[in-house]
Amino acid sequence: MKIAVCVKQVPDTWAEKKLRSDDSTLDREAADGVMNELDEYAVEEALKLQEAHGGEITIITMGPERAGETVRKALSMGADAAVHLVDDSLHGSDALATSYALATILTGRDFDLVFFGSESTDARMSVVPAMVAERLGVAQLTFAQKVDVDGTSVTIQRVTDYGFETVVANMPAVVSVVEKINEPRYPSFKGIMAAKKKPVETLSTVDAGLEGSQLGLAAAWTVVEDFAARPPKAAGTIVTDEGDGGVKLAEFLATQKFI
Amino acid sequence: MKWDEDPQHDDLRSGVRQICAGFPGSYWRGLEPDTYPAQFVDAITQAGFLSALIPEVYGGGGATLTEASVILEEISASGGNPGACHAQMYVMGTVLRHGSVEQKLQYLPEIAAGRLRLQAFGVTEPGAGSETTRISTRAEKVAGGWRINGQKIWTSRARYSDLMLLLARTTPYEECAKPTEGLSTFLVDMRNAEGITINPIKTMINHSTTEVFFDNVVIPDAALVGEVGKGFRYILDGMNAERILIAAECIGDGRYLLEKAVDYANQRIVFDRQIGSNQGVQFPLAKAYAQLRAADLVRFDAAAKYDAGSPCASEANMAKLLASDASWAAANAAMDTHGGFGFAVEYDIERKFRETRLYQVAPINNNLVLAYLGQHALGLPKSY
Predict the structure, then answer these.
(1) Would you say B262 and B297 are in contact if contact means Cβ atoms under 8 Å apart?
(2) Of B121, B127, B131, whose CA–CA distance to B150 is shortest?
(3) Is A190 helix (H, G, I), strand (E, B) or coil?
(4) What are phi and psi of B332, to 5 degrees?
(5) Class of A2-219 in CATH
(6) Fewest C-beta in 10 Å: which of A121, B116, B179, B212?
């Protein structure tokens, strides 16, 4: 079985995120980069399927040179090879451009399954997996908390607000996973050392056959007009209990229209 | 704050840090005073970091000593105590260098897989500290094996180890032409040996150290490592690696202490300003930083020489001396910076302060390092 896992480097989940003053895009230099947490679950699920069914796992990422750290982490977890699309012209690409780039790389590479984390912790849109599936013309199985492969079909439990749905599709298919699905492994010492020797194909947009007009900030369908920093935390109101603490608390909640 | 910036180590460092993140300060504090960090040791073992130095042909990681030292440094720098498991990494070196083919095939793959622990090293005795040749634990030849009688002390992790590398006298001191002769190394399987008593020793740090009594313990011929009478040489062979690894742990301790102290000095406001703006606070931290960076350079130099197979005894000794002095300087600066809070257990400063103090004294006293350098690096008379 041939599996692709699309991963993204994002600013450290716990770091304060900033936008750049020049073009209002995310300031990726302002914080340490880490692999998008949900993508770790996607890598883990691919590794589990590989252990059960054999095959090969290719990591695919689009991002600046620094995203190579995330590629190596995925390889150190156990994936076999990687494709890294890196090009200055990709800067500012929106979800449509990202899905166009990823789908173009995936086309002709003959994958049975393409895994994604269900969202990235920086953009949080959850649309790229669906867009990629649409562009590839294959089934999209999103928000999976369980994945089973049997012959040529793949079955998932798709998480909904009320429980889960069982969804079945023929492969090839795109699957996005939620964090309930597994417990991602730590890279082992051997995995880390082996990752240094695994093949990473670095592509420019020209190498990948992408049209520049569909990429980058200029091609984005959304525009950030303006932004402001989150206001600093205001000092809280301290209610001193002099026997009437309950009343004061209720009055405070009423003035804030909570009750 | 910049430390080693070799990008070759980035992934290794982040791999170790990811495991350590599951074992924060509260975990280590919860183990005090004397609980073994079994969960942490299992996690770091399962991920293959402790078998890094075992060659790949035996199922290990095939790491360089430089890489191994980075692993231990990151454990320290994350706030953990690698003293609980560092010996699992390097005690096997004696078997690797001097053991028979059968011993290597029997033990190394099991150690590499994490199924067998070899992290007890029985050398020091109550009557023979740094003067190793004075040990009196005897191994007498009997039919089919050896009978061991004697006592070891400061044998750390003996209760959490399956095997012990033991140094014993096979020829009495008085009968040897040179004191360094007549000593032999044995691999004692403590799981099935009768006559071994292990008593924990309470200490100021959580180090699981013990005294071990051997009362007519009979071990098979196959337990002898290398040749009879050459044990002292074999033990010395492992010491450079040990000193470089300990130096790296000290660098990690120093990083941890300094980073916490700098954070605190930047945040803590007294007399309407950050205490870090006071030179009395700032300068000791700056000095400790300079000492740590300098010690780190010697550590990497020593490790590179070791990895290249070049002589490195002076560099290994200097690395251990400088790094342990630097981490101790960082510990004191961190204590002073934190003031009363440094003594509060929940800040982890006092724990690291105690832990890093050990390395002034062990595995070799810093005075003996100076004695070595005076004699061997400078050509001065032997001073002890």
Answers:
(1) no
(2) B127
(3) helix
(4) -70, -40
(5) alpha beta
(6) B179
**Residue labelled with tokens 């492992």:** B238
Class of domain B118-230 as given by CATH:
mainly beta
Q: Do A186 and B52 touch (CB under 8 A)?
A: no
Per-residue pLDDT reduced to its tens digit, B257-305: 999 999 999 999 999 999 999 999 999 999 999 999 999 999 999 999 9
Angstrom distance (rounded) from CA A129 to CA A99: 8
CATH fit for domain B233-377, picks 3.30.200.20, 1.20.140.10, 1.20.1600.10, 3.40.50.1220:
1.20.140.10
B132 DSSP assignment: G
Domain ranges of chain A: 2-219
> Number of H helices and number of E strands within chain B?
12, 10
B 189-218 residues inside an 8 A Cβ radius of A: none
Q: Which residues of chain B carry a pLDDT beneath 50?
A: none
Compare all CA atoms of chain A with the CA of B17 and give the residue at the minimum distance: A186
Give, in words, the CATH class of B7-112: mainly alpha
pLDDT greater at residue A123 or residue A80: A80
Place of tokens 């690698």: B82
Q: How far apart are CA B167 and CA B54, in angstroms?
A: 22
Average pLDDT over residues A56-64: 97
- Is the CB of B19 inside 8 Å of chain A's CB atoms? yes
Enter the tokens of residue B120: 């007890």
Rounded Cα distance, A248 and A245, in Å: 5
Q: Is the pLDDT of residue A14 over 90?
A: no
Closest CA to A79 of A178, A179, A6, A183: A6
- Nearest C-alpha neighbor of A99 from the set A215, A242, A230: A215
**Any chain A CB within 8 A of the CB of B75?**
no
Chain B residues whose beta carbon lies within 8 Å of the beta carbon of residue A186:
15, 18-19, 43, 47
Confidence (pLDDT) at A122: 86
Half-sphere exposure of B224 (CA within 13 A, CB side): 20
Task: State the pTM of this model.
Answer: 0.89
Q: What residue ranges do the domains of chain B occupy?
A: 7-112, 118-230, 233-377
ipTM of the complex: 0.89
Whole-number Å distance between alpha carbons of A7 and A198: 17
